[in-house]
Amino acid sequence: MNWLDICALEEINVLGARVVAGPKGDIALFRTSVDEVFALDDRCPHKGGPLSQGLIYGKRVACPLHNWQIDLESGEALEPDVGCTHKYPVKVENGRVLLALTTIGECA
């Protein structure tokens, strides 16, 4: 897998997000309260709202437009909503956030 060095972990606020340009649109990198990092397309499956501007709690983000809850691990909307956003491989090594531009799994 081809890993891109994006930034230092500290450059993403705790319970915050950072947006990077991807080949098919913006990708949001989310940092949880326990320093886990997840990467999803920066658009909600409902109306395309910018997930990077949503509230992060646990391993979820709430879309700022209509409060859809998106699981950061899977990219899936939580019930009663249905849909998903593409997720990307991301890891933290030596305090650096690394991203691969390959989507994981299928998403309608």
Automatic annotation (TrEMBL):
Record's keyword annotation contains Protein biosynthesis: no
Keyword annotations: 2Fe-2S, Aromatic hydrocarbons catabolism, Electron transport, Iron, Iron-sulfur, Metal-binding, Nitrate assimilation, Oxidoreductase, Transport
A Pfam family reported for this protein in Swiss-Prot or TrEMBL: Rieske_2
Domain Rieske intervals: 4-99
Coiled coil: none
Example GO molecular function: 2 iron, 2 sulfur cluster binding
Top-level taxon of the source organism: Bacteria
UniProt-listed GO biological process terms: nitrate assimilation
Family assignment from sequence similarity: Belongs to the bacterial ring-hydroxylating dioxygenase ferredoxin component family.
Alphabetized PANTHER family for the sequence: 3-PHENYLPROPIONATE_CINNAMIC ACID DIOXYGENASE FERREDOXIN SUBUNIT, FERREDOXIN-RELATED
UniProt name for this protein: Nitrite reductase (NADH) small subunit
